[in-house]
Amino acid sequence: MVNVDALNTLARRLSPGAMITDPDLLQSYRQDWSFDPAAGTPIAVVRASTTADVQETLRFANSHNVPVIPRGAGTSVVGGSTAVDGAITLSLERMKSIRVDVSSRTAIVEPGAITNDVKAVAAREGLYYPPDPSSHEICSIGGNAATNAGGPCCIKYGVTSDYILGMTVVLPDGSVAELGGKRIKDTPGLALTKLFVGSEGTLGVITELTLRLIPQPPTPHTLVAFFPLMADAVAAARDITSSIRPSELEILDNAAIKVAEEFLNMELDTDAGALLIGRSDAGNGAETEMKLMSTLCEKHRATATYATDDPHEGELFIRPRYAVYEAFERKGVVIGDDVAVPIDRLPELTDGIADIAKRYSTTIVSYTHAADELTHPVLNYPIGDVAAAESASAARQEIYQLVSTLGGFAATEYGVGQDKRDRLSNSLDPVVSKLNRTIKNAVDPNNILNPRVLIPSSGSTDGI
Ligand SMILES: Cc1cc2nc3c(=O)[nH]c(=O)nc-3n(C[C@H](O)[C@H](O)[C@H](O)COP(=O)(O)OP(=O)(O)OC[C@H]3O[C@@H](n4cnc5c(N)ncnc54)[C@H](O)[C@@H]3O)c2cc1C
C-alpha cells in the first residue's frame, strides 16, 4: 500500500484540488451503475483537469505499482469503473471542453464531456454526432470511446468507433500517444486508434478525441405496431430489414409493454405479444419507408399500426422504449443486461425469460434492437434488499443458460467490465485470448490499468 507522504507528493504535482482523499467523498466514487455491493474504496481519487494531470498520475502509479481505475461518468453497468481497494480512481469528469470545426466536420472533445452535450454542440452547427447509447444524457464521451458504445441508431449509423478519427491517449508509463487525426485517411501504421476504442481503460487513458460529424439528418417519421405474438413482430422486422434501412427498429416484449403502460398511462395494448417501433429519417423517402413498414407489419398480423411525421408525436411514440428503464429506476436498482440470439429464436428467448421471471416472482422486461439481434433483459430490485439482489443474480444466470441453449451468447454492448470478464474468457478462442493478454502485457507490463476488467485474467492477483 502506498503511503500518505507519497500521495501528498503526487497531489502537489497535480492541478489544484485534483486529489481527493476525504473518506466521505471517496464513497461516491466506489460504485458505478452495476452497484456492486462488494465495490472497493480507492486510496485516492484524482480528478484530472489536463493531460499532464493524467500523465503525472500514471507515472506515479506505474512506479509505485498502484492500480488505476479510469472513470468517466460511472454509468457502466458491468463494473467497468467500479473502484478497487488500494487503487487510485482517475476521474475525467473535469475535462469537458467541446469544440466543433465546421470546415472539417469534426469535433475535438475532452473525455469528460457528456455525450448529449457533444450532440447538442454539433447540432448548433447543423451537424450530427450519431452514436446514441440510451444513457446519452448521463454518460461521458470518453466512456463511450472506451466501451465502443452504441444505441438504437446503430442499425443505420453504426457505433462510436465509426466516428472516432483520432485521440490523445496517455499510456501506463505516462507517455502520450497522438493517434489518427482529422481526416479519415490519417491512419499510418497499425490501426491503433481502433485498438484503444473499446479497451475499457485497460491500455491507456483517453484525454482527447477527434470525432467525425455528419450533416444533420431530416426529422424522423415514426411508426408503432402491436402484434399478437413476438413471432409476428420478428417476421415483420425481418422483412423490413431485408427491404430498407430504418434509422431505428426496436421490439418490446409483453412485460415491457405492461411496465411502460403502468408508467406512462398512454393506452398501450397490454395484451399484445410485442410492440415494434420503427423510424425513418430518409427525408423525401421517409413517407415511402413508413408505408412499406406499415404494409409489412399488417402482412404479419399487426393488430394496430400508427405512423406519424410529427416530431413531438414521434417522441411520444418512442417513449415506451425508454420508459421501462425509468419505471424500474423509481423502484430501485436496475440491472440492464445484454444478450444476443439469432432473431428467429427471439420468441423462445422472450418466452423463456417470462418463465424465469415467473419462477423468481419478479418482472423482467426485454427490448431488442431488431437489426443486430441484441436483446436487453432488464431486471430490478429494491435498494439494499440482499435476498432480492441474489435472486436477480440467479435469474440472470438462468437467462445466460437459456441464451446459450438458443445458440446465442452474453453480448457486450454495455461492455465487459469486471462482471463479464470470466464469461468472456471462457468463450474466447484460446489464440484470441492469448493475443489480448499479449497486447495488454506489452502496453501495460505492470498491469496497473483497470486490471480486473475486460482482458482475460493472467491467473495472478490482477495487479492488486
Ligand atoms: C440507463 C443506462 C442505459 C445504458 N444504455 C446503454 C446503451 O444503450 N448502449 C451502450 O453501449 N451502453 C449503455 N449503457 C452503459 C454505459 O452508459 C456505457 O458503457 C457508457 O459508454 C459508459 O460511459 P461512462 O462515461 O459512464 O463510463 P464509465 O462507466 O465511467 O467507464 C466505463 C469504462 O470506460 C473506461 N473509461 C472511462 N473513461 C475513460 C477514459 N477517458 N479513458 C480510458 N478509459 C475510460 C472505464 O475505466 C470503464 O472501463 C447504459 C447505462 C445505463 C446506466
UniProtKB/TrEMBL annotation:
Which residue windows are coiled coil? Answer: none
For this UniProt entry, the molecular function terms from Gene Ontology, in alphabetical order, are: FAD binding; oxidoreductase activity
**Listed PROSITE patterns:** FAD_PCMH
The domain of life is Bacteria
Cofactor(s) for this protein?
A: FAD
The UniProt keyword set, sorted, is: FAD, Flavoprotein, Oxidoreductase
Under which name does UniProt file this protein? Answer: FAD-binding oxidoreductase
> Which species?
Rhodococcus erythropolis (Arthrobacter picolinophilus)
